[in-house]
Amino acid sequence: MVRSRDIKAISELAAEMKRRKAVDQAERERRRQQKTSQQAAAEPRPLVNPFMAQHGRYEESTVVDLDGSLGGKRMSMVKVLLNRGGTAVERWISSDHNGMFGEPQQRAIRYTQNLWIRAEGGLRAIDLTADIVDAPLGWSQQEALVDLKDLMARVPRPYWEVYENVCRFDEPAGTAGSKLANNDRSALAAAKTCVAFTASLIAQWRRL
């Protein structure tokens, strides 16, 4: 049951989530425009560098270049490399050889992703973590905000931000972990470890 003294904190959390989402969308657009400008000015180079090739599942495919932005003529067929590995978290789970992302960690990630959906006002007919019908929209959203508030208070803020940026916003792991490391390779490892550690804590606290 939500106590009256938590209402203000919940409202502030909801506002902060909206702000973070808007900032993330703006940053994504900025990076997209920057990447487009850099690609236009750069010399032709391989689509995937050796490091990316080792950390993804790239397959050659043929697609239609609708507007010529892929290097071919407009409405022509061009060959491209597609990353079939999905998000960073999905790739980590599919290639987990060290047990960092076992069932508890995977359930914790799905649990938190479901909380974010509900906190934003979304409603799913089925709870991803329990296979039950979700609660009415208003109550479900309020419960999710309370639960997120509790988790955010218990996880160190730098770790939570990395966890949220990767698992909620699908931010590239190297970018998300850049505040915890000095170079790209270390940033990727830091983000992976941070996400696994945070998921482990959530799984323990929520008994997932």
Please describe the topology of this protein.
Elements: H1 7-41, H2 50-54, E1 58-65, E2 76-83, H3 88-94, H4 103-119, H5 137-154, H6 157-167, H7 173-176, H8 184-206
Antiparallel strand pairs: 1-2
Would you write up a description of this structure?
The chain has helices at residues 7-41, 50-54, 88-94, 103-119, 137-154, 157-167, 173-176, 184-206; strands at residues 58-65, 76-83. By secondary structure, the protein is mostly helical. Residues 123-137 have low confidence and may be disordered.
Strand tally: 2
Distance between the termini: 21 Å
Strand order of the largest sheet: 1-2
Q: List SSEs in N-to-C order.
A: HHEEHHHHHH
How many DSSP helices? 8
Most strands sheet: 2 strands, antiparallel
Strand content: 5-15%
Structural category is mainly alpha
Using only CA atoms, what is the Rg? 20 Å
Global morphology: globular
Provide the low-confidence segments as ranges: 123-137
Question: Helicity level, as a percent range?
Answer: 55-70%
Mean pLDDT: 75
Question: Keywords, please?
Answer:
about 210 residues; mainly alpha; two-stranded antiparallel sheet; 2 strands; about 60% helix
Summarize the entry for a quick read.
The chain is mainly alpha-helical and 208 residues long.
